[in-house]
Amino acid sequence: MMVVTFKLLHFLSGLFVSLKLLALAQEENQFIYHGFTGANLLLNDIAKIHPNGLLELTNTSKHQIGRAFFPFPFQFNTSLFNNSRSLSFSTQFVFAMVPELPTFGGHGIAFTVSPSVNFTGALAGRYLGILNSTTDGLSSNHLLAVEIDANRNPDFKDINDNHIGIDLNKLLSIDSAPVTYFSDEEKENKSLNLKSGKLMHLWIDYDEVERLLNVTVGPITRTKPTLPLLSTSLDLSSLMLDSMYVGFSSSTGAVASSHYILGWSFNRSGQAQSLDVSKLPSLPPQRKSRRKPSLRIALPAIAAIILVLAISGAVYIIRRKKYEELREDWEQEYGPQRFSYKDLYKATRGFSDRELLGRGGFGMVYRGVLPSSNKQVAVKKVSHDSRHGIKEFVSEIVSMGRLRHRNLVQLLGYCRRKGELLLVYDYMPNGSLDKLLFRNDTPILNWVMRYQILRGVASALLYLHEEWQQVVLHRDVKASNVLLDADLNGRLGDFGLARFQEHGSTPHTTNVVGTIGYLAPEITRTGKSTTCSDVFSFGTFMLEVACGRRPVESERPPEEVVLVDWVFECWKRGAILDTVDPRLEGDYVEEEMELVLKLCLLCTHRTPSARPSMRQAVQYLDGNATLPDLPLQGTGIGLVPVSNEASREHVSSYSFSDSESILSGR
């Protein structure tokens, strides 16, 4: 009986000791401070505890460090009752940053988990008192820090001057976010300003099982938000040593802030205890200058302020006038195709002469790079009078912007100012075709390139005549209106004389528009433009490409002045290839060249109904149809002779309702 009693007493004694050790272990694994009066923290550099228990890490001194750490390391090694190694921990604290200058913070606070409290060589400023340029990034640091950063440092790729980040062994954060908290009532994120001087509550929780580090922030007037600011997957097994200290490090730089910790709770083996805000110490009152500036100082200061305001107002008015636009309510539906004048001004470097691509009777064209997308564009400045049908004019411009074909120059949009219209196009780096055809100081286009350009422009005209939702009459097809992209593909542009009409409708009589040498004969008689008149211009354009000369050249012998008549006469003599551009030096496919020259003669027939449609022209050029024979005798092919004085005139009515002056600026 005595043996049994002795064994029972021995068991109870052991159980008591175990429970005592468990309680001690739990106490050693956690703590909570509401203020730090009597706390045995390890304080370094300028950190101090105020009489009311407020922990001040730094004051407004420049380039200083302040640290405060719990005096004993926490054991993350084998626990008392099992062999598992637990790395989970939870902490929360209330802090405040009171900057010396309202809009400049310096630099911030880092909650730090470190194997030592000896940070030899650590620097102030951007290094937050825990690292320097040599130690930053070393795996031997075994350092985890959650930085509360009120200063943006480009070297560490900080996202802004008001963020929280997670750092492992270096101050380039593996994850960071602007300081916000999730409002459970309003179901949205709310911003917090670290430099406001207000109290804020921060929670840090690491779950070893989930390998997840959550950082949550909020004002002290709210409970812990349900959604964290940062939730980062993290494996700390290689970073955490068996024995680690926890605490705070803070620093100032060229600008300074007072950094305060008011309360702190930590638990290595469970959830940290909640802080009671009512038990926290108060911040010191912010100092205000008691000296009133003398009148002698105040008056010059007031005068200087007034002068600065006046200069600023004048600059604002000048800048506003500089970028002023005309905008009317009816233009809102064209919003996506409307560019701001400010963007176009910057894109062309203020419409600098260095960016000038060309000039003509209707305006000048500039190269530009849009600041928003870095896209190269061509910007044409055209004078206009807003009293003449500008609404219909812009409507037609927007309609042109909806045209989509690989062989059309894309009109991207427009901008309006008083007395000025700006049109924005895709930039064509190789300029207009006529420069390569007619100038001796440019590279020679071989026949393969020329034939490909002809097929491309024919395809574009077919799209305009038959394949778009309306019939688009270009009314000014010529080599100078064909632009070359980077791959020397021909793109038909300059829709300044273009006109829209419904499929199947009868053309209306308008003023005679176009360029002498390309005008179909019926236009001069009736004033009516049709798809047949575009075919006529296309035929003349093909002659330009094949023969390497303009349609009318008065300085040539009389029989060669009008190109189409000369080609027709040569064809009748069986010598049509004599008209081929001599710069080709005979390097071309004869069958293709004969096809092009004969097709030119068909397209320039004086009778509109005798001309092929653009669909037929494409089929001939693609080799999908056989070109009909030309009549050897007859008067149906050729231009009406023109006088030398008129040979280079550009005929236009300058009417806004016909969109005749939009694009002709070469």
TrEMBL record:
Family named by the database record: In the C-terminal section; belongs to the protein kinase superfamily. Ser/Thr protein kinase family.
Enzyme Commission (EC) number: 2.7.11.1
UniProt keyword Mitochondrion present: no
Keywords: ATP-binding, Cell membrane, Glycoprotein, Kinase, Lectin, Membrane, Nucleotide-binding, Receptor, Serine/threonine-protein kinase, Signal, Transferase, Transmembrane, Transmembrane helix
GO molecular function annotations of the record: ATP binding; carbohydrate binding; protein serine/threonine kinase activity
Classification lineage: Eukaryota, Viridiplantae, Streptophyta, Embryophyta, Tracheophyta
Catalytic activity: L-seryl-[protein] + ATP = O-phospho-L-seryl-[protein] + ADP + H(+); L-threonyl-[protein] + ATP = O-phospho-L-threonyl-[protein] + ADP + H(+)
Membrane topology of the entry: Single-pass type I membrane protein
Protein name in UniProt: non-specific serine/threonine protein kinase
A GO CC annotation given for this chain: plasma membrane
PROSITE patterns (alphabetical): PROTEIN_KINASE_ATP (PS00107), PROTEIN_KINASE_DOM (PS50011), PROTEIN_KINASE_ST (PS00108)
